[in-house]
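Review box. Two proteins, two foldings.
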Amino acid sequence: MGWGTIISRRLKVFSLALFVYFDYKAVQKRVQWVSAVKKNAIWAKTHERNARRVLNLMIELEGLWVKMGQYLSTRADVLPEPYITVLKQLQDSLPPRPLEEVRGTIEKELGKPMSELFANFDNNPLATASIAQVHRATLEDGREVVVKIQHDGIKEIILEDLKNAKSLIEWIAWAEPQYDFNPMIDEWCKEAPKELDFNHEAENTRIVSRNLSQKTEDGAGSVSSDVDVLIPEVIQSTERVLVLQYMDGIRLHDNDSLEAYGVDKKRLVEEITRAYAHQLYIDGFFNGDPHPGNFLVSKEPPHKPILLDFGLTKRISQSMRQALAKMFLSCAEGDQVALLSAFAEMGLKLRVDMPQQSMDIATIFFRQSTTADEAKENIKALNEQRERNTKALQEKMKLNKKEVKHFNPVDAFPGDAIIFMRVLNLLRGLSASLNIRIVYLDIMRPFAESTLLGSITRGPSTNSQWIYDSLVNSEVESKLRSLLLEIGSEKILGIQVCAYKDGKVIIDTAAGSLGKYDPRPVQPDSLFPVFSVTKGITAGMVHWLVDKGKLKYDETVADIWPEFGTNKKELIKVHHLLNHTAGLHNALADVAKTDPLFLCDWEETLRQMAKCTPETEPGSSQIYHYLSFGWLCGGLIEHASGKKFQEILEEAIVRPLQIDGELYIGIPPGVESRLAALTMDMEEIQKLSGLRPGPDVPPELLSGIAQMAAGLPALFNTLNIRRAIVPAANGHISARALARYYAALGASGTIPPPHSSSSKPPLGSHVHIPTLPTAAPKKKKKGSAKKGGSTPDKGEYAQLRTSDADSEASAAAGSTGGTMFTNSSGSILDAFMGVGEYSGMIHPNGKFGLGFRRYGKAGSAPTGFGHSGMGGSNGFCDPEHAFAIVVTVNRMSLGSVTRRVVRFVCEELGVPVPDEFSVAGEKGPDMVLNLATPPE
């Protein structure tokens, strides 16, 4: 291609781009002053005339522009209807190339004259596309074939067109920053040249055909039997000629023929979608160009789809497949944490922490398709959502209207994800062009689940990494790991167990996966949501304030929190709050049930709590304050200290114990990649039917408990809830951090020696409050490396948007000889358990001391204290035996796994097994889902 041709093509492209751009800008000004009816008519004419201008230039230039026009013609879900109607003409054949050129290419490439190659060759092409022309022929052995011949000089044209397209996209991004398609064109520039080698296409065709014809057994079962498509056999290939088996079929845009043959168009698109879901999630090898011209429909019933043209085929790694599957399933589940984790795993980096907007945008790709008739409303809805997201971004980043237009919230976008999203868009356009509606989530979900569950459900019997690779601290830990393998993945999804004996770590084990759809391994620093285990942390903060002289147990709450002293609460004392005898067990429960996001408004919950009225006299009965405990103690903590709740949490517990980054009540942005996701063991939840509450459990709590429990994972997996301050139910901890806490409490506040050096990463090495990167990060100097190393290996965490460059400097796992409390005598233990001089502050024969669940044998004095949580997590200590243990789980159940683990460890160590962890012992009200006694 000469310089004259190159300059001519470039001028034509940019001249038209400017012409169309200024035409739309002029119309934007003009329609401000006309009625709605006239406005619609003006826009329709504008779209049509510009669509025809674009079409004419694409036909004139051919090459890449035709392919781009074919892609745009499938986007009936987002483009104005005139563009779809006009550009659809590009799906028909282009003007044919001269027969002499075609014959010359065939003979040169195949090395024989036409007469020796074919018994018959149809001189009239079946189709002429942007890169090649297709003819029907018959081989000497009688086989019917099609011959695909590449146009002369097309390689140079395509490469030049890519340069022009890149320049055009950069100009659009400069003129209208909200339309930045640079990542997409960059990936296209990398992949499109591969289409110019037909040997490459031939091998791709063989691979896809082989993949879709084989039945693949995976951990989640076989899904490939759902794929029912046809792919032509490859007969012969060279760089510029491809000979394929002939398949007689109907083109997708030939609606009359589709109707005449009785083709079920909905089933047709569903089969195509299944085929692509299999390629994407099962095989990791897929056609990146599924426009209507690359499909036929067989004329014979059941009218199977015929897949053609595998020139632009993409291979993605297993880790990327898992990340894409996680992204899909997180959208299906509404799990923002899993979505951000998927972003990190695939290399998509964000500059701003806006999880809800991220979920909104990601869900767009998997939404139910719309028909062409609904395209107008769909475009309107998408524009409205874009405006909402822009406004939220503007408020979040404190930008003006001009700045927000030029701010890109995405710092890096992976090329594999771009091709993946392009495929989804093309499939969506396919259904829109055929005027049918399909639900992508339902069709693609089994394939995405197979990718993730295949690695998760292998479990301990086949997955050597099911138990996280860390040094064994003791013989009992070795035996415990054998027990966990015996219990297996049927009952355990993810688990952490950490135990201290005589001030030393004897167990620090992590096993399983972070979530149902997250195959990454649980590690010692993983953060588990532990529900009511949180109450034990909150209670410790109250005791710390008493120790500092900021509070007294027998002090009236209203003297500290003046707004609280209304509606018959004037006599409620601090010890009533800690002992669940304040009579406010149902306070705000109805509001929380009807509006769960009410939990996220800390200040408002405290205001409303101060207005509540007790149902019983203070001290008259001990009834579990399942939610209100946290707000009551939280308000007390803030008013007594004059500081924020989170400040006291850090000052009283996190910093003294040096467990930074592993104990939170309300997580900060930046720790998402370490979060375990909750799921429910539905078999055990069914056992809740018919459960009867004891006298210390509010009947309201057990009303519809099974339904409530089933919905809890979805609610508590959302970032809105995870980031809220809910001191009764929202702790996110590692077992090793909480075990260190209970080891200290059991020793009257004496801080244990440093945590085991074999535990990696070291306890306390994370930045407690990560920081977000700047909005416009400075460009790194050439040759410089990112501080902290390289991309994480498979299975490791990719820390989301954190800055912990100096964290290793503070990696000491704890100090020796310090204490959490000024009063380090045994009397503080008495306060925890409500015995000795504090026995008058608790309800007689109640299960709670001052803030903690009391553990021991029935009829005997308590020997330990701690707190358990809904679903199975638990933490407690036995001061007499200098023993503390914590178990965290993410598969919520009736707690049989936790009890079995605790019972096993206690028996191995000769520590008395509290009734709550025995086979037949009574289960406490604090672990609501453990009220029943499941089979052991």
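Next protein.
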Amino acid sequence: MHGRYLIIFSLCLGLTCLSGYFHVKNKNYRISKSHEELLILPTPCHAKTNVMFLKTHKTASSTVLNIMFRFAERYNLTVALPAAQLFHLGYPKTFVAHFVEGFETIGQNYNIMCNHLRFNPLEVKRVMAANTFYFSILRNPIPLLESSYIYYKNNVPAFRSSKNVNEFLASPTKYYHPADYRENIYARNIMWFDFGYDNNAEDDKNYTQAVLEEIEQNFHLILIADYFDESMILLKHALCWDLDDVIYFKLNSRSQDTVQTLTPESEEQIKAWCSLDWKLYLHFNQSFWRRIEETIGLEVLEKEVDHLRSRQKELMETCLSEQEAVRKDDIRNKALLPFQSGAANILGYNLKQDLDNRTLRTCQKMVIPELQYTSYLYAVQHPHKKRKDVGLPLLWTNLQERNVQLPVSN
């Protein structure tokens, strides 16, 4: 008899505890009967601070580099900067670890890597931590080749000896000689080359498929420059960053009057002439949109892109006197003059005159060109080394004020 009471008592006690357990769960968690509601509950995540960005050419990558540098300063992270007086990590040579300043003493303790390099995964992994997030950016090869032609017109033999981009594309082999491939890398499959592969390789189906699969294994995310704002939202989600971490002003862009109009025949020729880049772009453009649909959804993406653009407009109104980029001759502060190349007129910015010191410093970080920012960070991280010479006035002489955040939104 006592045994039966004991069993009943134990059962009641168990049910009481179980009901208490569910009560606690209900207090701490929003339990919903809707599966859709459960899916949209925010998942806690932590900002990734070990990040490697493969900076490709003529793909809006200078704007991404500025985003990376500002993030590094905000969180006092260590950037893997080019050694000595260089502004790239050994490019166009295949990357090796000693191209990074201080690698021999700092070792695998860098947080951010984003200057130009030719990708070499084994050597990059010697520099970056095991949990590093790898990403890069691609651009449609049609506008990319036209941009390269203008920007590298004076440096690339294949471009230099042709009158304009359409003449070059009418018969590229007339101007492009594989023996001069080091000088001509910008004239054919430049993105393929930046990822570490042979830009003159034969377009063999098995070979290209193997390369695409290898890139997928080496990189967590590939962005698309033609959808830059959407790319920034996807990057924000992938890295668990704040919106202000991916706010940007467009850098290293050129004036529209230097753009050469491609004929329809030239556009088709680019697809054949740069067929490796074309396949690379098509493949990762598809995976880009698939990633968005699987992780964010198009409706949320549209809302966040609108928010990003509103915040960008607000900051431009705060910072800029003209509310837009200006031609090189109209840049008042020569410390903010971007590097000029070829026939391109690279645009820059003028800041408002009446900004308080904190806002001024923040706005300067948004518009400072790549070479000047690299030189500044080098001086901060390696104060006993000779500062990289940009050949322009210094924007800052005080190197201590590093952790500057964007003005708070109203």
